[in-house]
Amino acid sequence: MRNFFRILRYGRAYRRYAVLNVVFNLLATVFHLISLLLFIPFLRLLLGQVKPVLVRPTELWTREGLEGTFNWGLTRLIEQNGEMGALLTISIAVVVIFLFKNLFRYLAVVAICNFRNYIVRDIRAAVYDKMLELPLRYHSGERKGDLLALITSDMHVMEYSVMFYIEMVFREPIAILLFLGTMITIAPQLTLIALLLLPISGLLIGRISKSLKRKSTRVQEKNADLLARVEETLTGIRVIKAFNGEGDMRRRFARENEMLTRSSIAMLNRQDIASPLSETLGAAVMATIAYLGGSYVLGAEPTLTGDSFLGFIIIFSQLLPPIKGFSQGYSAIVRGSASGQRLFDLLAVENTVKERPDAMSINAFNDRVEFQGVTFAYEAPPRSGTDHERRAVLQDIELTIPKGKSVALVGTSGSGKTTLAGLLPRFFDVTEGRVLLDGNDLRDLRINDIRALMGIVTQDSILFNDTVANNIAFGTPGVAQADIERAARIANAHGFIEQLEEGYQTNIGDGGNRLSGGQKQRLAIARAVLKNPPILILDEATSALDTESERLVQEALFKMLEGRTSLVIAHRLSTIQHCDEICVMQQGRIIERGTHQQLYDAGGQYRKLCDMQAFG
Fold first, then answer.
1. What kind and span of H or E run contains 369?
2. 385 in a domain, yes or no?
3. Residue 352: inside a domain
4. Is 408 part of a structural domain of the chain?
5. pLDDT in tens, 140-194
6. Same domain (yes/no): 419, 537
7. What is the pLDDT of residues 203-259, one digit of tens each?
8. Going by C-beta distance under 8 Å and a sequence separation of 6 or more, which residues neighbour residue 72?
9. Are residues 513 and 453 in the same domain?
10. CATH number for the domain including 494?
11. In a domain, 354, yes or no
12. I need a surface site. Which of 56, 233, 238, 616 has the fewest CB within 10 A?
C-alpha cells in the first residue's frame, strides 16, 4: 500500500475532487440506505403487521425510538391515505430516493474521474521529464524497451489497476460504516456475529493479494523484455533481412512471448480466484447469519420480528458488495503497485549531472576552452560479490582550445574521442580534473547556458518525424522562415529541399527515413547553423557518407566553421588537415599533438593512420 499512498501524493493539488467524491458518495449511500429501510414498512403493509403508534416517541436515537418513530409515521400515513394509498406513497418515495441516490452517485463518479486522470497525467509527465533529465550515461546503460514499457504498459497497469480503484478506497468504507451502523441498530447480536465471521474471508483474500504482487512484478518485467525485443527488431530490420536473421529473431521473440504468456496466466489465475472465493465466503457468512437470525425470530421467546430480520438480511446483503469490492480493489492496488514501484524507481534515479543552486549565468564565449587533468570513468556493473567497478575511458587529458581555433581528435575506435567531446556540453561530468569555459568550471555554470553556446553535428543525424522547417528550427522557437532558408543554403540543403513535394513543409518521416544519408546530414548541419553557436562539436559528421554527399557536407562544414571555435572528431584524416591542432588519442590519452604537417613529419601514430588510409 506504500506505493498507493505515494501515488495519492500527486493528488494534493486536486484534493477538492476527492472531497467532493466523499461527500457525494456519502449522500448516495445515505439515500441507498433509506431506500432499503423503506422495505420494512412495505413488508409490514403487505403482511398486515403494522402496529399502530399514536404518540411520537421522545427518544429518537435509540433502537426503540427509531422503530417507534417509523411506526408512528406509517400509522399516520395509513390513517390519511389508507393501506393502498400508503403503499403507493412508499413506492413513489422509493423511486424518488433511488433517483437522488443515482444522481449523487453520478456526481461522485465525475469527481473521482477528474481526480484520477489528473494524477495519471502528472505522473506520466513526471516520468517523461525524468527521461529527459537523466544524463546520457543512464540512457546508454538502459534498454529503450524498458523505458518504453514504463511509460506505456506499466503506466496502463497503474492507471487501471490502481487509479480505477481509488474510488473504492473512498466510497466503500463509507457504505460499510453506514450499513454496519444500521445493522447494529436493528440486531446488535447478529451484527457482532457477522463481524466475527467476515475477517476470515479477508485473511484468505489477503494471502492471495501478496502472491498476486509477486506475479504482477514478473509480468511487467517480461513485458518490458518483449517490448525491448520488438524495439530491437524495428531498429535493426535492415540487418535482420540482409543476414536472413528472421528465423533467429522469431525464436528469440517466441521465447520472450512464451515467458510473458506463462507469467500472465499465473497472475490472472490468482487474480480471478479472488472474486469467486470472496463470493463463496460471503454466501457462507450469509447462510450462517440467516440460520442464527431465524432462531431469534422462531425461538420460544422471539427477540426479533420477521420484518426487521428481513430488513437486516437486505441491508447485510448490501454490505457484502462493498466488502467484496474493497477486497477486489485491494488486490488490484497490490497488483498495480508492482508497476508503481517500477515507475517510482525510475523517478528515484539520481541525476549525476546536476546544476548547482547558485550556478552562474553565461551568455557569451570570449576566450578559451580548457581540459585540465581530466579523467573520466564509466561505472561498470558489479561482478558477483563485488561493488561497482570504474572503467577509465579518459586519463590525464590536458587540452586548450582558444577562441576561433579548431582542434581535431583522431585515433582508433574506443580511444575516448566522443567521450571527451561529450564532456564539453556536460553530457557527463568528469571523474577527476576540470573542464573550463572562459576560466569557469562547467559545474559552476547553468547547463542551459553552456549548451546554448554550442552546436553539435554527429555521425548519426538525429531528426524527428516532422517537417523539414521544424527540424531545422528545432530548439530555436519563433525563428523566421527566411532564417531557416538561409541556414539551409549555408548547409547546401536548400536545393534538394526545394525539390521535395511540399518544400520546407514536407514531412520527412520517422527519423528522417524519407531522405538519404547526405540529405539528413545537411539538415542536421542547417539546424546547427541556425543556432549560430560560437562553439561547434563535429563528431565524425562525414564518415557515413558517399563521396558526392561528403563533398557537399564538407563544403557546408567549412562554411560553418569560419570564425568559430570547433572540436572536430574524424576518422577520415583528409577532412581535418586544415585544423589548427590535431590530437591523436589512444586508450584514453593524448599521445601526439600538433599540425597535420608536424605530426606527419614526426612519423608517429598519426603518420601510420595517414598511411593506412592512403593505402586503403
1. strand 368-380
2. no
3. no
4. yes
5. 766 677 777 778 777 877 777 666 667 777 777 878 888 888 888 778 888 887 7
6. yes
7. 665 565 556 556 666 776 777 777 777 777 776 776 677 667 788 888 888 888 888
8. 53, 54, 55, 56, 57
9. yes
10. 3.40.50.300
11. no
12. 616
